[in-house]
Amino acid sequence: MNGATAIVVFVVSIIAAIMIHELGHFLTARWFGMRADRYFLGFGPTLWSTQRGETEYGVKALPLGGFVRIKGMSPLDERLRPVPDQILDPEAVAHDRTKEAELVPAGAPGGVGGLPEPTWSRLAEELRHRGASRELTERIVTRTRVNLGDADDLIQARTTLNEVITGEVPDTGRVGDLHHRITQGDRGRFFADRPAWQRAIVLVSGSVMHFVIAIAVLLGMFLFVAQPTGEIDTTVDAIVEGQPAEAGGLQAGDRVLAVDGVRSDDYTRLRDVIRARPDQPTDFLVERDGEEVTLTITPARATDPETGAAFGQVGFVPSDVFERYSVSRAIEEAFVGPSGFVAIFVGSFVALGRVFSPSGLMAMFSQATGAEDRAVDGAVSLVGAASLAGESGGTTYGLLMLLLLIAAINIFIGIFNLVPLPPLDGGHLAVLGIERAVNGVRRVRGRAQDFTVDPRAVAAVAIPVLAVLGMVFVALLYMDITNPIRLGG
Question: What would the CATH number be for the domain defined by 232-323?
Answer without folding.
Answer: 2.30.42.10
